[in-house]
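Researcher: I'd like a candidate sequence for this fold, 136 residues long. If you have to choose between options at a position, lean toward the conservative one.
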């Protein structure tokens, strides 16, 4: 791939990352609440998820996903289910007796923070569409 083909991809990537989404909010929130190490773990999870989508799109499967809207719809519903599960978990924690006490932000392991970041990005339909468009 010539360098001249990479410039439009880079421009599209900068535009895509400039709009905050669930990954940006997760990274920022985790870093503010649990510190830099866990924020970076979530960020690496997001990067890992992006690498998965880039690999899939590079192999031509991204175009197939865009051609079959049911795959993207399924991914969208999986992402919505994940967000609903997070909301349920958060509501249960808030209603638990003693919830007013500050929780220990260091309880989440770095591996779990990484997995959360990867899951957020793997269930983000914008990532599928972006990488599908890049390699189309």
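Model: Candidate sequence:
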């Amino acid at each position: 791939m010539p360098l001249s083909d990479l410039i439009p991809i880079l421009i599209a990537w900068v535009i895509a990352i400039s709009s905050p989404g669930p990954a940006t909010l997760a990274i920022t929130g985790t870093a503010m609440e649990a510190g830099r190490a866990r924020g970076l773990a979530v960020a690496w999870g997001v990067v890992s998820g992006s690498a998965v989508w880039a690999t899939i799109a590079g192999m031509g499967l991204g175009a197939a996903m865009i051609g079959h809207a049911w795959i993207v719809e399924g991914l969208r519903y999986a992402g919505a289910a994940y967000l609903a599960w997070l909301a349920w978990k958060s509501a249960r924690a808030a209603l638990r007796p003693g919830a007013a006490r500050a929780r220990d932000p260091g309880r989440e392991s770095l591996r779990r923070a990484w997995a959360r970041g990867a899951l957020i990005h793997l269930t983000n339909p914008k990532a599928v569409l972006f990488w599908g468009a890049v390699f189309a």
